[in-house]
Amino acid sequence: MGHAIGSVLSRHENIRVITNVVGRSPRTVDLAKKAGMITVNSYTELIEQVDVLLSILVPSQAIKLAKQIQQAIKPDSKFIYADLNAVSPSTVKQMEQLFDKYPNIQFVDGGILGGPPDLNGKTPKIYLSGEHAQQLEFLRDYGLDIRVIGNEVGQASGLKMCYAATLKGFTAIAIQASVTSKMLGLGEVLFNELKDSQPYVFKRMQSGIPDMAPKAYRWVGEMEEIASTFESMGLSPKIFQGAADTYRFVADQTPLGKEIVEDRKLGKTLGDAVDIMAQSLAGKKP
């Protein structure tokens, strides 16, 4: 997502998109360069050049990045730090506290809803909240769909948690149902019934399960953040702890976990993806 957002911004001549590539994989570096980003070799160098810092990465690394940025801040540093990661309101508030003592660092809470920008001009919605959120509305002029929804840090991230729960939570349930039916010898029967009585659900499964494969490792942390969010409201976290386990299984224990978005080889259809996951589980059974 980060390089895709960067690509949209870098199309405009009067804006510079900069990223720190130290410690990143060769694939990430290549994606950044293809997106037209300027690469630097430290966070100190990065924050010396930016007015706005958009944090977009694996949810489990969001706080780590915020701390690295904090450590690089100098007395004359001045920028907006917008966390756009799929993390809980409580996690976002922890990050906000890291910058509280820096009067020239303004924190914004954000959540990205939808897939990466594509060549047809489709872009995700970027919801923002917090006291300084409106300062990022200018990014609409650079191709981003910015939507400010409130003045409180935690609102945008809370929306992201609830939205992602309905979509990625469904995919986790669909994975478990599909793989179990396959291992019981009922896969074809289940799919035929869904086609007949729940065509919209089956259509979602046809796209959602194959598309999930190269993203499963990212979704583990996101499901854990959703579990934490719901638990803080007095609800059980167990559903989404289970969803995290489901995506952890895909990422760590099946060949699908080695897939990458731009070069898919395995599990490109619902049937193939389910077959691979079922075979991986069959190999684990005593």
TrEMBL record:
Record the organism: Didymodactylos carnosus
- The protein here is known as Phosphogluconate dehydrogenase NAD-binding putative C-terminal domain-containing protein
Q: Which residues form a coiled coil?
A: none
Domain spans labelled Phosphogluconate dehydrogenase NAD-binding putative C-terminal? 184-250
> What would be one Pfam family of this protein?
DUF1932
Task: List, alphabetically, the InterPro entries matched.
Answer: 6-PGluconate_DH-like_C_sf, 6PGD_dom2, NAD(P)-bd_dom_sf, Pgluconate_DH_NAD-bd_C
Source organism superkingdom: Eukaryota
